[in-house]
From TrEMBL:
UniProt-recorded name of the protein: Chemokine interleukin-8-like domain-containing protein
One Pfam family of this chain: IL8
Annotated SUPFAM superfamilies: Interleukin 8-like chemokines
Stretches assigned to the Chemokine interleukin-8-like domain: 34-87
Domain of life: Eukaryota
Entry keywords, A to Z: Cytokine, Signal
Organism: Channa striata
GO BP term, pick one: immune response
Gene Ontology molecular function: chemokine activity
GO cellular component terms, A-Z: extracellular space
InterPro entries: Chemokine_IL8-like_dom, Interleukin_8-like_sf
Stretch forming the signal peptide: 1-23
Length: 100
């Protein structure tokens, strides 16, 4: 029988750990930001946008935007300018990745 490489063992152990946590129903926190205070002020140059959906440990809906100065801003989903940009296809804001 052929021996598994170290990287294969690490991959298998990681997969097993993820499966155990998922089966137990436990929540995993991966250090995602949580917007508590939001603004509706217009952001001129947007580098990146993600939608923060409510999740365990962070029950606020917001859009997390990084501007040209690499500042992270939390935008109110009801902001009219943001809704128009998303509806017109000028801005794509995929949901953030959470494991909860």
């Amino acid at each position: 029988m052929r021996a598994l490489s170290v990287s294969c063992w690490i991959c298998l152990l990681t997969l097993a750990a993820v499966m155990l946590v998922h089966a137990s129903g436990a929540s995993i926190s991966v250090g995602l930001p949580c917007c508590i205070n939001v603004t509706s002020h217009r952001v001129r140059t947007i580098i990146k946008c993600n939608e923060q959906k409510p999740r365990v440990g962070c029950n606020h809906h917001a859009f997390v935007i990084k501007n040209k100065k690499h500042r992270t801003l939390c935008i109110d989903p009801a902001a009219q300018w943001l809704q128009v940009m998303i509806q017109n296809g000028q801005l794509s804001c995929p949901p953030d990745i959470s494991l909860s």
